[in-house]
Amino acid sequence: MRYLRLLVLFWKASFLVELEYRANFVVRILVGVFWVGVTILSTTVFFTHTNNIGGWDFNEVLVITGLFTLMGGIIQALLQPNVSKIIEMVRLGTLDFVLTKPVNSLFLASLRYSQPFSAVDVLSGSAIVVVALSRMGYIPDGLAVLEFVVMFAMSVLIVYSIWMVMATLSFWFVKVGNLSELFNTVWDTARFPVSTFNGVLRIVLTVVIPIAFITTFPAQAVLGRMDEATLGGAMAMGAILFGFSVWFWRYAVRSYSSASS
Amino acid sequence: MTSQIEVDHLSKYYQVHEKEPGLMGSLRSFVKRKYRDVKAVDDISFHIDAGERVGFLGPNGAGKTTTLKVLSGLLYPTRGHATVLGFTPQKRETAYLKQFTLVMGQKQQLLWDLPAIETFLVNQAIYEIPKAQFEATLNELDNLLDLESVMKKQVRKLSLGERMKCELAAALLHRPKVLFLDEPTIGLDVTMQARIREFIGEYNRRYGATVLLTSHYMADVTALCERIIVIDRGHLFYDGNFRALIERVAPYKILRLQFEQPISRLELATFGEVAACDGLTAVLHVPRVQATESATRLLSQMKVDDVTFEEPPVEDIIREVFAGRVEMRD
């Protein structure tokens, strides 16, 4: 309850910051619209040559495109600003202020800032999903919606954990900008259903780098194609990665405390 | 009764990696790093009672900040241990974190793009300060620091001095019992330094808070602290009453004289120790207890144009301490 109140306060403060920069708002919307256009266009181009990608037809891939945009918005709005801030705080030593506050340090460091305007991508992504579903004339039933909510929550948890692990690495390497480049490269594969990729790569994208959990599986859920194994796998993956990121953060804070000056 | 801050045989070593100069050196250290232990704090012990104001003196790299960080729970001691308010700092228990504050003159916690009041509100929630208490504290801080005009302006538009006022306010909203202040007046002009100093003194008196302060500016320490702890290269050189230290190291006052006609060293020697004499001007070191008497005698026996009394410069006294010519405790 207390943490929820803090979260509201943090986001309110971030929103106030964003309001200070009006031009930024316009730019964000333009960039958002531009990327939605590009993404839909490239998907359309693919489908001029074929009528399915990895067993997914145009509308189904569009659901993935929507989820991809949606998740991108969440990353931009919630994760990226905090990760940059953590890296900056480690470099400047202002992390000391986070660590001397009487709240959970990971909570404070990872959710302190946000860029609410980036939520335009969340809106446009959701719109794409809705449009794709209505083009199919498909209305997900209660179970599909429930499964989707669970899968999507896991997807957010997984992405959060990956970003936090990357941010935590900055305790040792200070400059970790290259890592987020690496993430972005791999991230792009989430535009397509994981079945697009063949054998080994598909396994890598599911188990090693859990990209499949981010867009493909939630899309399967909303389309009513979820099996228990995948559902259980996603929950396990979310729990494991989140657990690891929390442990890794604590470990980093402890070693920061015993080593840095 | 036990002390509020207890530091027992505290040591803190860092491993730093050494790099040889040049490209080859950089490449070599990229592949294999050589580490060296730096003893930032080496076997230091001291106790501080509730409500004391203690100045922490020492040159750069003496170990002052490291000690403050250990006490704030940011660093784990390599050896020895510290307790503050009965807590072990590095455990970072919530109950402890709510009772002290750390202010670093060179680092800021205020949200850059927003007015300081937004940071205050966030801290109110973080420290779970009840609304009534928050408003009362803010009101008092406003009286002492004159915040009204500055806390509603964007932080990035504030001057350094205004920002420091807000930093202090943000750090004191939860009415901490223990204040760790690391160079709180750094970079400020003389007036603002005096202002901040007065404020810290007033806060200490009003709330009985313990203050441990480091500063490069002697004036901060002379004005605020009745006790000083002097450290250098991780070692403790002196811990005790500041006045007593001055009395002991410099048990004299400085008498500057200007004469109407040339005078010799010999004639002056009966009044005190002659530190300098070039005929028309002279500098005498006169024992404190006899200072007035010597001066009176001087004025009646010689044709003196001008005379001034001065305290020995604190910097010189501290230098004596570092040179190891002073007993560790008074």
Per-chain topology:
The complex is a heterodimer of chains A (261) and B (330).
Chain A (H helix, E strand, L loop, with lengths): L1 H19 L1 H28 L8 H35 L2 H5 L5 H7 L7 H18 L5 H32 L3 H11 L11 H10 L7 H7 L5 H32 L2
Chain B lengths: L4 E14 L3 H10 L2 E15 L4 E5 L6 H8 L7 E6 L9 H4 L2 E5 L11 H11 L4 H15 L14 H13 L5 E5 L7 H18 L2 E5 L3 H7 L2 E6 L2 E7 H8 L2 E8 L5 H4 L4 E5 L3 E7 L3 H11 L2 E7 L3 H9 L8
Helix pairs in contact in B: 4-6
Number of separate helices of chain A: 11
Q: Please give the CATH architecture of the domain at 5-99 and 176-246 in chain B.
A: 3-Layer(aba) Sandwich
- The coarse silhouette of chain A is globular
What helical percentage do the residues of chain B reach?
Answer: 25-40%
Number of helical runs of chain B?
12
Share in helix of chain A: over 70%
Total number of beta strands of chain B: 13
Instruction: Name the CATH superfamily classification of the domain at 5-99 and 176-246 in chain B.
Output: P-loop containing nucleotide triphosphate hydrolases
Largest sheet: number of strands, sense, barrel closure of chain B: 6 strands, mixed
Task: Tell me the greatest interface.
Answer: A-B, 26 and 34 residues
Low-pLDDT stretches of chain B are none
Uncertain segments of chain A of ≥5 residues (pLDDT<50)? none
In percent terms, what proportion of residues of chain A is strand?
A: under 5%
- Main sheet properties of chain A: none
Overall average pLDDT of chain B: 88
Q: What would CATH call the class of the domain at 5-99 and 176-246 in chain B?
A: Alpha Beta
The computed structural class of chain A is mainly alpha
From the alpha-carbon coordinates, what is the Rg of chain A to the nearest angstrom?
A: 19 Å
Shape type of chain B: globular
Distance between the termini of chain B: 21 Å
At the fold tier of CATH, the topology name of the domain at 5-99 and 176-246 in chain B is Rossmann fold
